[in-house]
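Entry 14: structure prediction run for FecR domain-containing protein. Input pasted below.
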Amino acid sequence: MEATKSIKLKIIAYLDGELDEHGMQELADWMGRSEANARYFAEVKDLWEVALRDASQQAETEKEWAKFIANTQQTEKETKRITGVNWNRVAQLAAVLVIGIFIGGILFYQATDQTPAYITASAPHGSISKIILPDQTEVFLNAGSEMKYAFDQQANQREVILDGEAWFRVARNEKKPFTVHTGTYDVRVLGTEFNVKAYSSENTVATTLEKGAVRIVSTGNLRLSSEILLNPGEQLVYNLEQKSVNVKKVDTKLYTSWKENRLEFIRMGLGDLIVLLERRYGVDILVEDKDILKYHYSGTIKNETILEILEIIQHTLPIRYEITDQTIKIFKKL
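Run finished. Output tokens:
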């Protein structure tokens, strides 16, 4: 009972902007223990956000919030402090929460006396995560991706560290640029919609711009002669092996439709398609004959199962597959 009461108090303090780093660490650890904990936090957070969406519901929301406070058995003074909330401030202090297709992804804080607190969100293989950052930036994380966000409301920069693929709809703030750090280059924006694919296991890093403008900025791992400005419909690809930069016009939906649980591709190499399928479905695929990696495939994947996809590919390309001990093996068809 005391543990539950303590968690409620931490949630109250966090939403009120008064939780210290030690308390944030404890709250984040608690959220990461189970999906039920993450859902509970989401329900409490929704009480705060509903008034932001519809001012006419604010009175009712405050009633519901008062009920929650009453359950903590706190003093009348503490209750008045919480129910007399500044709703505009709540929006700025909205918690980071993994929602959508995958709920309860790993979230935790890392903090020392020298470094800021970080929240880490991830999307395991076979899932997609949706995250709302404290500044209301919307992020979709693709399967097998991880993102860290510095929890510092006072900083002049908004920064994330990405290993994997993510689509961003950045809330515009000209006073606080938004930067995506990859293992190769940085992507800097003020407010826009774009996709960054930067898996540390792959040899290319790609940024695809849908709306607004982004700048590709040098890092210690990649020195550019100057910043590169991308316009809507453009994609920059850096090849780590060839150390080459290529900017081209693309059909952006081919690179962003994954966030809608749909994949579209044109003449994708079979090797790249296999990696994509492994991440999307959380399976292991073994290629027994490397010659088939030269094949290309075009198509769309939405609600099909992995077996349905394999059947389609098997009837399109000269390959066959077998499933052995939970591993999919692909052979060249004789």
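Notes: Residues 35-53 form the longest helix (19 residues). Will compare against the previous run tomorrow.
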